[in-house]
């Protein structure tokens, strides 16, 4: 997939205060632009485009960053702050679904709040929005000055539309892409650092399931409030593509881009269905595990990411499928049952017929050590419970709907909190909404030095319903 290229300058130049007169939709000051001056500038345009998802279907009109699906892949490095100018050039006619009013969230990133892409920070056709990404580790201003806690390093992130009430349709229409971060350990060069498979052997894969109408056009059922399940499976914008690979180790970065499908991915050899084909998981949601974990399958929920290493030398000359064997019958979640090998959804065919080549990547079976888990010793200052439920067709937390204009609470910078998430919706199965609706501080394992946090408003001790 195309790598996003930096530009030499932006016109008008980025400013700390929102450039309202110049057409910027931002409403709040940049908090850290002078602290972490951007070393690279990017300009991305959200626009409609025609793409092919399959030779068996007519071309599709999508909305994409730079007009492609997935959007361009950003390659970032810790210690290298960047600024991305997001331009809204979408059409007023949505062709049936999608809202041309946008905000872009860099999922999981440690980002100042004005640049985070909050659901209500949307901007309109003809406007732009500058998003400043310091690309800095958590802890830089508290327990691990000046550069942060290496154990908070993130690798595989994704950016996506986050418009309140329209996120699902706008992502389904194409507004999402990868954002990868490297550092001195996960270097992007397999001869250095952790020696993870790199370059052409490091492949992000955006998984999506979609529905097409009787004319072969992309369809989104606005009246299905359970969540849409597709019967066509796409990897990186194509229905069931089939790469050829070399018999060596590859790193795959799997992302479930939704809207409602959960996956449990197995490696299936249709000529030997009883074979147990093992591989290695090395990261969950962008964080490397302390050491690789050998697995037979990987479960991924909506918006989650799993990084794996697969050694194709064991499959030389064969054709292998990435197969989703998790049974799911509607958008409310999987049944939990695992289908027999060969009876699931074949996501991707991999043909191991390219010649043998050098492999300088680490063998996961030697149990290389990556990072440690961050410290959990500090006592939580406060415990909060979040009770997710469904009321009159809308999602609630602690029986209240989201309010764009009034934050429910704020947290105190450089403190630790204990958060308890409860799914009270009465469904027998897991449901994606808690995972997708979670604000960033859920994802960050310690909310210390979270630069997206605003003024201190202590909540007192004991469990608090927010
Ligand atoms: Cu997200």
Question: Quick gist of this model?
Answer:
With 466 residues, this protein is mostly beta strands. It has helices spanning 167-172, 433-437, 440-443, and strands at residues 40-51, 60-65, 71-77, 82-88, 104-107, 128-133, 156-161, 176-182, 202-212, 218-219, 232-235, 238-239, 249-256, 263-268, 279-284, 287-295, 297-300, 305-311, 319-324, 326-330, 333-338, 345-351, 382-391, 394-397, 417-423, 463-465. The longest helix has 6 residues, at 167-172.
Please characterize this protein's 3D structure.
With 466 residues, the chain is mostly beta strands. It has three domains: 40-182, Sandwich (Immunoglobulin-like), CATH 2.60.40.420; 199-366, Immunoglobulin-like (Sandwich), CATH 2.60.40.420; 382-465, no CATH class. 3% of the residues lie in helices and 35% in strands. The protein has three helices and 26 strands. Strands 9, 10, 11, 12, 13, 15, 16 and 18 form an eight-stranded mixed β-sheet that branches. A four-stranded mixed β-sheet has the order 2-1-4-6, with no helix packed on it. The longest helix has 6 residues, at 167-172. It is globular and about 60 Å long. Mean pLDDT is 89; it is low at 431-464. Bound molecules: copper (II) ion. Copper (II) ion is lined by residues 105, 107, 160, 303.
């Amino acid at each position: 997939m195309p790598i996003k290229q930096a530009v030499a300058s932006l016109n008008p130049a980025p400013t700390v205060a929102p450039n309202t007169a110049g057409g910027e939709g931002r409403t709040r000051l940049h908090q850290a632009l002078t602290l972490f001056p951007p070393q690279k500038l990017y300009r991305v345009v959200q626009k409609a485009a025609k793409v092919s998802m399959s030779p068996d279907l007519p071309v599709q009109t999508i909305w994409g960053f730079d007009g492609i699906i997935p959007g361009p892949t950003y390659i970032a490095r810790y210690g290298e702050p960047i600024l991305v100018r997001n331009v809204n050039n979408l059409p007023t006619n949505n062709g049936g679904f999608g809202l041309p009013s946008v905000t872009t969230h860099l999922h999981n990133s440690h980002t100042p709040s004005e640049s985070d892409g909050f659901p209500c920070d949307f901007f309109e056709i003809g406007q732009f929005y500058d998003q400043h990404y310091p690309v800095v580790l958590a802890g830089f201003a508290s327990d691990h000055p000046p550069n942060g806690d290496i154990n908070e390093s993130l690798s595989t992130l994704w950016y996506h539309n986050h418009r309140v009430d329209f996120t699902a349709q706008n992502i389904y229409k194409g507004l999402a892409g990868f954002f990868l971060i490297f550092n001195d350990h996960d270097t992007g060069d397999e001869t250095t650092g952790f020696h993870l498979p790199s370059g052409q052997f490091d492949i992000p894969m955006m998984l999506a399931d979609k529905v097409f109408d009787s004319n072969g056009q992309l369809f989104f059922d606005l009246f299905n409030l359970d969540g849409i399940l597709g019967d066509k499976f796409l990897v990186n914008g194509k229905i069931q593509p089939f790469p050829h690979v070399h018999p060596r180790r590859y790193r795959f970065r799997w992302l479930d881009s939704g809207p409602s499908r959960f996956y449990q991915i197995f490696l299936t050899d249709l000529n030997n269905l009883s074979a147990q084909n093992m591989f290695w998981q090395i990261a969950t949601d962008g964080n490397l595990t302390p050491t690789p974990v050998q697995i037979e399958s990987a479960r991924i929920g909506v918006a989650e990411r799993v990084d794996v290493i697969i050694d194709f030398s064991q499959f030389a000359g064969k054709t292998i499928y990435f197969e989703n064997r998790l049974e799911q019958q509607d958008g409310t979640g999987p049944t939990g049952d695992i289908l027999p090998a060969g009876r699931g959804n074949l996501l991707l065919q991999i043909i191991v017929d390219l010649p043998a080549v050098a492999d300088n990547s680490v063998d996961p079976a030697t149990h290389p050590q990556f990072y440690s888990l961050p410290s959990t010793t500090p006592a939580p200052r406060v415990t909060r419970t979040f009770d997710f439920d469904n009321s009159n067709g809308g999602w609630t937390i602690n029986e209240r709907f989201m309010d764009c204009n009034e934050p429910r609470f704020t947290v105190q910078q450089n403190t630790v909190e204990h958060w308890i998430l409860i799914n009270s919706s009465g469904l027998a199965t897991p449901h994606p909404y808690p995972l997708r609706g979670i604000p960033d501080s859920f994802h960050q394992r310690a909310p210390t030095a979270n630069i997206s946090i605003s003024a201190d408003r202590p909540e007192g001790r004991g469990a608090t319903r927010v």
